[in-house]
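Students often ask why we bother encoding 3D structure as a string. The short answer is that it lets us treat folding as translation between two languages. Here is a chain of 101 residues written in the first language.
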Amino acid sequence: MTRDPRHLEDAIETVEHYRRPIIDIMGTLDLLPDNGRAMARVVVAMANKQSADTARRDLGIPVGGTRPFGWQEDKRTLNPTEADLERGLRARTGHQPTADR
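And here it is in the second language, the structure alphabet:
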């Protein structure tokens, strides 16, 4: 239906005002009943987050998850102390670094 919560709220206002249904293309979300509006809000919120995550990934910005060992909280800057510890461990065990390090 939409990924923008503002557009959904406009659609909900239109449905409430005219008492005419707006149903998504799959026929699974109906904005007339309360339950349909609530579900549409959840679906749009998740679609909006997915879109934002994709945009960040396209820019090379990590999304979600915990901070990997050897990296700062921004997940883009090396933590010098942890990175040195990991390099030493890899050298002792013979493991090759991964592509992102």
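Translate back mentally: The chain has a mean pLDDT of 87. Keep this in mind for the problem set.
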